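no rush on this but wanted to send it before i forget. theres a chain ive been looking at and ive put its sequence and its fold in token form underneath. please have a look and point out which stretches look like helix strand or loop to you. thanks a lot i owe you, the record is right below:
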Amino acid sequence: MLALASSALLVLGCVGGRAPHEATSTPTVAAPLPANLTSFRYVLNVQASDLGGVSGATPVTLSVRGEVAAADRQRSASHLVLSFGAIDSERVQIGARLWTRDGTGPWFEEPAGTRASATRAVGIDLDPGVLVGGDAHGRLQRTLTGVASVPEQLGGVEVAKYSLAAAQVRVLLGVSESDSSGGVAGVADRWLLWVTKDRWLPVRLLSDSTSGGRVRLDLVLSEHNADVAIEAPK
């Protein structure tokens, strides 16, 4: 598993670029105070193709379904497709403890201090857990205050769409400029973020990269502040 994930990381580690052109934004008149996000469920899709600028290169895809009950209490199931096969895996994090398994095999508890966000398999470090809690609440407010937005409907919900630079995404995710492991902010120069219009709850984060290949990262959040129970594997 680690060898396959490392191969994918080496392939994607240097990809960067910019998001596609978006419609002109209209200024936000008065921004609401963001609600404190404490839990959610999510679907994350990452697609990479034409790597190294080679047209027709075999695409790499990663699909993740997960739940976040707290920043350090998460569960996810991943499906990674590479040119030489597919990998199904699961992970459960509770505090400083992390369990993983491949397919339907046995669970293993990883050594203390192991970092294993599902997206590290494709060279992008995105931990959805950074979007919950008081610190995340403050980062979201600092990121969006004073930024223009476009009103939209997304899944029947009134939302505000924001176009953000990579530096703003770093603030949103709590990644410092000197942190080389924060590859998610380097995927593209521009990002799109949708939040609920009334309470600024994040609904979707999207990026497209077209330099040295194409990487599309799409994170969709649902069931905000739902009762999410996550237990250790047995």
Residues 57 and 227 are 42 Å apart (CA to CA). The radius of gyration is 18 Å. The first strand starts at residue 40 and ends at 49.
